[in-house]
């Protein structure tokens, strides 16, 4: 009699909340699809790239970073997806543990980046240095530097004389390049009402002092601009960090709840 009652109870009552279970499933599924997209973009970028200057510049190929991030995300979200669907404790625990690891790693990088801001700045400077050196060898780097300089209204990393790092713009006496002592056009301040764009506006600028240079180009280096941009957009940076970590925290909490519900369910049946 007792046993029959128990069985009836087990059929209708469950410790597992279906809303949490299906939410975790769809949530993981969404990011699982997203991870496939990231891998696809990474592979596409890798195949597209004929030359390897970008890889040389950044030590690690950005396309490889995309592929690695995508593959890691694929396995983590796969565990969450199937774990929730099959109510599999091992997969859910793997999901929760990996997500916690990723979250803590990101947190550590953010905290270190904040406390070692000088070193972060130096590291960024090294990247920009490489981008300037390879400016003419790689269209992506050229577009990147042009974009940075236009958007942040800056020129070079410390200042416009950094363009001497590049073989073509190098200001050393005897440099046969026609662009000797010049800076790229993206350094130029727009002239209101200009009909014919003066693409040579940056020519000879490196020989000029700050005041002279101000007349034709952005005289401030991108390092100072970047620091000021971050300081004036702290709220945006915080929102971005939150947007990145919130889904992770939600995933960790929901999977933990689901794990304990499944464990309750198992012990109630035993
Ligand atoms: C540009 O920066 C370099 C290195 O920081 C410095 O030596 C040089 O005096 C600066 N030039 C101008 C014109 O500000
Ligand atoms: C410019 O070129 C000369 C000769 O190749 C080199 O010695 C110098 O270091 C270069 N300038 C910069 C800023 O790299």
Automatic annotation (TrEMBL):
Protein location: Cell junction, Adherens junction; Cell membrane; Cytoplasm; Membrane
Disulfide bonds: 154-187, 155-171
Keywords, comma-separated and alphabetical: Cell junction, Cell membrane, Cytoplasm, Disulfide bond, Glycoprotein, Membrane, Transmembrane, Transmembrane helix
UniProt family annotation: Belongs to the tetraspanin (TM4SF) family.
Any one Gene Ontology molecular-function term assigned to this protein's record: enzyme binding
Chief place where the protein resides: other
Transmembrane segments: 20-45, 57-85, 97-116
Pfam family name, one: Tetraspanin
Protein name according to UniProt: Tetraspanin
One GO location term (cellular component): pore complex
Coiled-coil segments on the chain, per record: none
Topology relative to the membrane: Multi-pass membrane protein
Gene3D superfamilies: Tetraspanin
InterPro entries: Tetraspanin/Peripherin, Tetraspanin_animals, Tetraspanin_EC2_sf
GO BP annotations listed: pore complex assembly; protein localization to plasma membrane; protein maturation
